[in-house]
Amino acid sequence: MTSPNGLPQPPASLVAEDRSEGERSEAERRPVAAKLGGEPKPAARPNPEVVAKAKRRKPTAEYKQRILIEADAVNESGGIGALLRREGLYSSQLTAWRQQRQSAIQQAHGPHKRGPKPKNDPLVQENQKLVRENLRLTENLRTAELIIEVQKKVAALLGRPIYSPEPEDKR
Predict the structure, then answer these.
(1) Is-above-0.85 flag for pTM?
(2) Cα dihedral sign for 20, 26, 31, 35?
(3) Partner of 3 at 20 to 30 A CA spacing, among 35, 87, 99, 150?
(4) Other CB atoms closer than 10 Å to residue 97's CB: what's the count?
(5) pLDDT tens-place string over residues 24-64
């Protein structure tokens, strides 16, 4: 066999051996359908559909601690911004994590009540119930007094005043 330029061409088996691992001939690069003479099929494309609900990242405590340590160690200008860009974070997340760290420290070093938790005392429950009932009745009384006051004004406008006894002196 000769090539188009007139030089002898080596057999295909020798050519395949001379090629490196990553090289392929034109026929090898074509889809299988093209080898058979049919239309080449388009390559499979990824599904363009957007996932209905995006999956949120949930950083672990170790990750948060590592990022906070790195952020605290930054000395140069713009270093925290570079860290946030590299990790794909917002500055508000860094602030929230710092607050969480501070509250955890305060909670760990704060005073702790010793002993068993107090049980529900029936006297305390009854007292709370009576306080709520007292508030409800006080509000009902205020509403009733407003209604009576309006009735008195309407009766006075119609010419039929309603007389009520004077309230007793409170001493």
Answers:
(1) no
(2) negative
(3) 35
(4) 19
(5) 555 555 555 445 555 656 678 878 877 777 778 899 999 99
Q: Please work out, in degrees rounded to the nearest 5, the angle formed at the alpha carbon of residue 149 by the alpha carbons of 144 and 152.
A: 125
Q: Which residues contact 2 (CB under 8 A, 6 or more apart)?
A: 8, 9
Query: Exposure string (b/e) for 13-37, b if CB count within 10 Å is 16 or more?
Result: eeeeeeeeeeeeeeeeeeeeeeeee
How far is 157 from 163, CA to CA, in rounded Å?
Answer: 14
Residue holding tokens 């406008």? 157
In contact, 33 and 40? CB cutoff 8 Å: yes
- Cα gap 95→88, rounded to integer Å: 15
Q: Which two tokens stand for residue 13?
A: 């088996």
**Could you tell me the maximum CA-CA distance found in the chain, to the nearest angstrom?**
132
Instruction: Report the distance separating Cα 110 and Cα 55, nearest Å.
Output: 37
Interval 132-155 mean pLDDT = 94
| Paired tokens of 57 | 């990242």
Distance CA(48)–CA(17), nearest Å, equals 41
- CA dist 33 and 14 (Å) reads 26
